[in-house]
């Protein structure tokens, strides 16, 4: 696709404009459309063209990286059948020193199923869980799919403190793992989470347990969460909503890990998820 836009870091680019080439690849299941020959069973690429055109020929952006992100986000939000979106934005003949045919960016964005752990042992514990879920749901690119029941659990670690309320949640997200983690940390900060004592009391604790089948290890984020297989307060609620999910690296299902855990005590059902109220847990 070719458009005329006004994107660039230089004032001249935003004033004069230039041509932009855009390639968009959509990954989705085409069996139903192929077998029925019905347009409503697939994605109308004329509609995609119109949406991309509105972005590229719309308000100027300093970076073509931002243009690419806006295209991917728009496609994934508007077409739920699309599992993955690949966007290539090309700027021919950029106004920089030297000879370049073009500069471009290529990104891949996809819908990812992730699992979160939530805990609180200060103040209105259930209230903090509810506020955290509502804050996450309000984030663009995050959708709460299902929640476990709430369990009261003995404190984990050497610090003497009050019992926790713990639960897990399955979400669908358009965000990369690190971007999701940053959103979670913002929610924690907004709910007065402090990190003065390791394993100490907290208003809210949000852990990114699993992000699809991604495996990564760094000081910032390790996936899957390295403590999943040893924490009863994680495995019990996780087994409720995803018992047959196989944990990367562990190569066992959540249910098997829970059944093999030697320390199952200290996790007590506190509030059954009965489907009533917000997230099935909080009646009005």
Automatic annotation (TrEMBL):
<comment type="similarity">
    <text>Belongs to the DHNA family.</text>
</comment>
<dbReference type="GO" id="GO:0046656">
    <property type="term" value="P:folic acid biosynthetic process"/>
</dbReference>
<dbReference type="InterPro" id="IPR000550">
    <property type="entry name" value="Hppk"/>
</dbReference>
<dbReference type="Pfam" id="PF02152">
    <property type="entry name" value="FolB"/>
</dbReference>
<dbReference type="InterPro" id="IPR006157">
    <property type="entry name" value="FolB_dom"/>
</dbReference>
<dbReference type="GO" id="GO:0016301">
    <property type="term" value="F:kinase activity"/>
</dbReference>
<feature type="domain" description="7,8-dihydro-6-hydroxymethylpterin-pyrophosphokinase">
    <location>
        <begin position="198"/>
        <end position="209"/>
    </location>
</feature>
<dbReference type="GO" id="GO:0005524">
    <property type="term" value="F:ATP binding"/>
</dbReference>
<dbReference type="GO" id="GO:0046654">
    <property type="term" value="P:tetrahydrofolate biosynthetic process"/>
</dbReference>
<keyword id="KW-0456">Lyase</keyword>
<keyword id="KW-0547">Nucleotide-binding</keyword>
<dbReference type="InterPro" id="IPR035907">
    <property type="entry name" value="Hppk_sf"/>
</dbReference>
<protein>
    <recommendedName>
        <fullName>Bifunctional folate synthesis protein</fullName>
        <ecNumber>4.1.2.25</ecNumber>
        <ecNumber>2.7.6.3</ecNumber>
    </recommendedName>
</protein>
<keyword id="KW-0289">Folate biosynthesis</keyword>
<comment type="pathway">
    <text>Cofactor biosynthesis; tetrahydrofolate biosynthesis; 2-amino-4-hydroxy-6-hydroxymethyl-7,8-dihydropteridine diphosphate from 7,8-dihydroneopterin triphosphate: step 4/4.</text>
</comment>
<dbReference type="GO" id="GO:0004150">
    <property type="term" value="F:dihydroneopterin aldolase activity"/>
</dbReference>
<keyword id="KW-0067">ATP-binding</keyword>
<comment type="function">
    <text>Catalyzes the conversion of 7,8-dihydroneopterin to 6-hydroxymethyl-7,8-dihydropterin.</text>
</comment>
<dbReference type="InterPro" id="IPR006156">
    <property type="entry name" value="Dihydroneopterin_aldolase"/>
</dbReference>
<dbReference type="InterPro" id="IPR043133">
    <property type="entry name" value="GTP-CH-I_C/QueF"/>
</dbReference>
<comment type="pathway">
    <text>Cofactor biosynthesis; tetrahydrofolate biosynthesis; 2-amino-4-hydroxy-6-hydroxymethyl-7,8-dihydropteridine diphosphate from 7,8-dihydroneopterin triphosphate: step 3/4.</text>
</comment>
<dbReference type="GO" id="GO:0003848">
    <property type="term" value="F:2-amino-4-hydroxy-6-hydroxymethyldihydropteridine diphosphokinase activity"/>
</dbReference>
<comment type="similarity">
    <text>In the N-terminal section; belongs to the DHNA family.</text>
</comment>
<keyword id="KW-0808">Transferase</keyword>
<keyword id="KW-0418">Kinase</keyword>
<dbReference type="Pfam" id="PF01288">
    <property type="entry name" value="HPPK"/>
</dbReference>
């Amino acid at each position: 696709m070719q458009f005329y836009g006004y994107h660039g870091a230089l004032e001249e680019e935003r004033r004069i404009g230039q041509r932009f080439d855009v390639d968009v690849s959509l990954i989705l299941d085409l069996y139903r459309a192929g077998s029925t020959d019905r347009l409503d069973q697939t994605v109308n690429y004329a509609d995609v063209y119109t949406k991309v055109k509105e972005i590229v020929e719309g308000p100027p952006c300093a970076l073509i990286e931002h243009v690419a992100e806006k295209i991917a986000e728009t496609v994934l939000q508007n077409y739920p059948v699309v599992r993955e979106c690949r966007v290539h934005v090309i700027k021919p003949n950029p106004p920089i020193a030297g000879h370049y045919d073009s500069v471009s960016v290529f990104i891949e964005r996809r819908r990812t199923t992730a699992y979160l752990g939530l805990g609180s042992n200060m103040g209105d514990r259930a209230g903090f869980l509810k506020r955290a879920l509502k804050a996450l749901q309000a984030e663009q690119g995050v959708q709460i799919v299902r929640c476990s029941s709430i369990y009261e659990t003995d404190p984990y670690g050497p610090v003497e403190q009050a019992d926790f309320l713990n639960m897990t949640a399955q979400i669908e997200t358009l965000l990369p793992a690190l971007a999701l983690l940053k959103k979670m940390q913002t929610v924690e900060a907004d709910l007065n989470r402090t990190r003065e004592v390791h394993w100490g009391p907290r208003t809210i604790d949000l852990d990114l347990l699993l992000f699809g089948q991604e495996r990564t290890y760094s000081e910032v984020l390790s996936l899957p969460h390295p403590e999943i297989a040893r924490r009863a307060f994680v495995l019990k609620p996780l087994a409720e909503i995803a018992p047959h999910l196989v944990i990367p690296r562990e190569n066992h299902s959540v249910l098997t890990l829970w059944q093999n855990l030697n320390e199952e005590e200290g996790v007590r059902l506190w509030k059954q998820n009965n489907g009533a109220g917000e997230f099935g847990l909080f009646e009005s």
